[in-house]
Amino acid sequence: MSMKSLNRRRVVVLAAALACLAPGLSLAQAKLKVAGIYTVPFEQQWAGRLHTALKAAEARGEIEYKASENVSNADYERVMREYATGGSVLIVGEAFAVEAAARKVAKDFPKVNFLMGSSGKPQAPNFSVFDNYIQEPAYLSGMIAGGVTKSHKIGMVGGFPIPEVNRLMNAFMAGAKEVDPKVEFSVSFINSWFDPPKAKEAAFAMIDKGADVLYAERFGVSDAAKEKGKLAIGNVINTQAQYPDTVVASAMWKMEPSIDRAIKLAKEGKFAAEDYGPYSMMKHKGSELAPLGTFEKKVPADVVAKMRAKEKAILDGKFTVKVDDSQPKSSAK
What we know:
By secondary structure, the protein is of the alpha/beta class. It is 41% helix and 17% strand.
């Protein structure tokens, strides 16, 4: 046997040995194989937070990342199985509309780790759940909204009336009422996670009824506010750069604490079924109120001071924002 073929054989044997010791880690870079599966486009804000956190880990050289966007609910299980059989050690996604199928896949692949957006409980040994528990900054953004509305009417456009959306809307409403007890709300749901034209039309209808501040839980709402010269409050991401004269404040979600924890545990072989929900809260830096930026001097100073005091109380554990998953309703006429 030639020296060249002998060396090649040694590399193959070494690679096989390493694969046995650390499945999912490549010989050259020892990167964890991670997959992301999203039913919406990468640009959609909720999926975008997961994708951004995973891309950051990829940029640091920690993981080998592959992702699929716009996966239909009917196709979700097949895509999960493809990634699981293809060597992915950690799969991140959303199980809200495919709970039974996702949990079935997890049972079939006990050595693969799953971190899924879910309204359900963790499933031992390998199915962890998370959710956007950003009701704290949502409350603070509501305080700002209550401080800038002049008509005392706020319009709210949501995707679906599910707990993940409801709790943020309810927290926002409670914050607005603290600052402006007279405020009235118009609430509607477009029954889609990504339909900007439909969200825009719903927002126009609210503006026609006197709303001068709009809660933009979905894309499209801020466009309506901009066109009509009204104000908007953002959710999950900060779009003020795109709407400098429209978006006053945003409740930001940061998935990095959850994603980084899952990657670390998966690398160490210590990943277990747990609820990652708390890692989306302010004390874990999983959420925050975005800087007021272009509206720093436009929001009344007393409102900002009141909001900052509440922010400190939340971080100090002296004020707890209530988690209310019930469907929010428009104010009674």
